[in-house]
Amino acid sequence: MSAGYMSGFGNSFETEALPGALPVGRNSPQKINYGLYAEQLSGSPFTAPQATNQRSWLYRIRPTVRHTGRFEKIARGKIRTAPEREDGELPIGQMRWNPTPLPKERLTFVTGLHTMTTAGDAETMSGMAAHILLVTQSMTREHFFNADGELLVVAQQGRLRFRTEFGVIEIEPGEICVIPRGVIFRVELIDGPARGYVCENYGGGFTLPDRGPIGANCLANARDFLAPVSAYEDVEGPHTLFVKWGGELYKTQVTHSPIDVVAWHGNYYPYKYDLRRFSPVGALMFDHPDPSIFTVITSPSETPGTANIDFVIFPERWSVAENTFRPPWYHRNIMSEFMGLVYGVYDAKPEGFVPGGMSLHNTMLPHGPDADAFEHASNVELKPVKLTNTLAFMFETRFRQRVTKYAAGLDTLQDNYIGVWDGLKKYFDPKRREPK
Predict the structure, then answer these.
(1) In this predicted structure, what is the pLDDT of residue 98?
(2) 312: pLDDT strictly greater than 70
């Protein structure tokens, strides 16, 4: 099975791996070609309004009730789920980590998930968790689905292949893959060990943000999101299915591959997106727009204008504003920000924040450019500058992100991170005024 894609975000697609596998004019006919079973996968309540109703019909070799035997609870490893209240005094201040080295031990996608922060409450379907992903081994006859939330995977080093019920998705650094809640998949390495970041979204599914006055174009365009074409496996033999449910990890044994969907149609499916296709907008004269203009996808909440999660990126772009402090300003925010660097240099933190690294700036805790970045941005001649070969991102949520014991105990945690602001000097002079 090779990767093939259909273009569009939120579209209702239909695809079949065998001709005539999709029933015509009805979802669940009495008999289906090839002896397939009809099964619906719902990502929203049945009675959700049409605009937010998510479901797909799958036509598969066996229904998924045959994919789940008796579940056995197993150790959850480094995976944690909100609300997590681990023992110990865990820090709340500004935090930053160097890249987590890829280990020599054998880690699959499931065992390679290491939770850094949790936020909100998975039981109430609100909030998120941020994980670092370390994969050194492909999943072989192993599969996984997450009942607690959808997974947004940001590739940082190495390529990953997702073999899902809906088809095959491959991503490389600079691309993301979103696996909706409940979708079965396995992950394979393409060219060696891989590292990435994962946002586990407990809330409403990711969607494109409203553009407001920006209008119909720019930011992330729907046509650049890619859904997989149908591809199936008819493989007999023992397989293991792992399930994350209620913050715990379970496994069950099945006698065949669960990647057995021969055809599907609907609007609930996994997809990928190349972050390099994001079309940024910004200030053309002066002033500093809110970083929400860099939102790729968003998980809305019940409060208008307040996201459960915003996935925000800082890609290559021109900086042209006149008489303006161009890097992100100093701020305190109701939202909490987990940030990572995929590649390049982040303009507000030119030192100490490197590809594969992470930072956390939590609710109402102040942050902003370090001393060197402030000095440079305050005194440089403001010519048009293109920021190249750079890609940073944020998982931003309205909830506090609580650091896990694992994250707080990492050797890569920078104990002196708070010191990046020590060099900020006092310039106040009541007699000094800048020229207009």
Answers:
(1) 96
(2) yes
Give the span between the Cα atoms of 429 and 26, in whole angstroms.
76
Contact 190, 158 (CB under 8 A): yes
125 and 148 inside one domain: yes
436 falls within a domain = no
With respect to residue 433, please indicate whether it lies within any of the assigned structural domains. no
Which distant-in-sequence residues (6+ apart) come within 8 Å of 428 by Cβ?
none
Pairing of strands 126-135, 113-121: antiparallel
What DSSP assignment string belongs to 86-139?
-SS----S-EEEPPPPPPSS---TTTTEEEEEEEEEGGGTEEEEEEEEEE-S--
CATH number of the domain to which 86 belongs: 2.60.120.10
Q: Are residues 322 and 388 in the same domain?
A: yes
From the candidates 143, 239, 288, 367, give the one annotated as an active-site residue: 288
239 is known as an active-site residue: no
Do residues 32 and 45 make contact, with C-beta atoms less than 8 angstroms apart? Answer: no
In the prediction, which pLDDT does 1 show?
61
Distance CA 364, CA 347 (A): 22
